[in-house]
């Protein structure tokens, strides 16, 4: 079973421990630690954490430092949260052998991406890349097609422009331009989803 989890807009900075506890509580067969029960409950599942940030689990570019203030953490609380994330990351490494502290993107959604990667053995992927693959975008014929995306931008998504341009223009074979004879490409996340969906329906 493939499970895709879109990460963003969370209100937590718990390193994903909340989701691990919830999965462990749902496991009604056998004893074991929280991590063991969570992994047992999700056996046979393939997880993909979809996110468009490269925040680390902790540190200067980590979940607490970057996103904590957005979620109401005071300057005094940020280092406390960061230290808790560091300790949790060390636990993941000790128990599972997966170093969440050095993996890019693990700080997404307050560190939830880190838990999905370390505990559930999931993959972390950029949103546009994952959506286009889910819809098998590359398999759709492009000859004589024109896909036109709108120009509205979701709030707070300005920082996605460069990464979205890479994903979409890579698909159309136009590395340095978001326009070609077959496509008029807008590089924003909402447009990525609409573009892929339109291509799927058209075919």
Characterise this structure:
There is one protein chain. 43% of the residues lie in helices and 8% in strands. It is mostly helical. Helix 7 (161-172) links the parallel strand 4 (147-148) and strand 5 (183-184). The longest helix is centred in the middle third of the chain and has 20 residues, at 77-96. The radius of gyration is 19 Å and the shape is globular. 40% of the residues are buried. The strands form two sheets. The chain has a three-stranded parallel sheet. Strands 4-5 form a two-stranded parallel ribbon. It is built from eight helices and five strands; from the N terminus they run βααβαααβαβαβα.
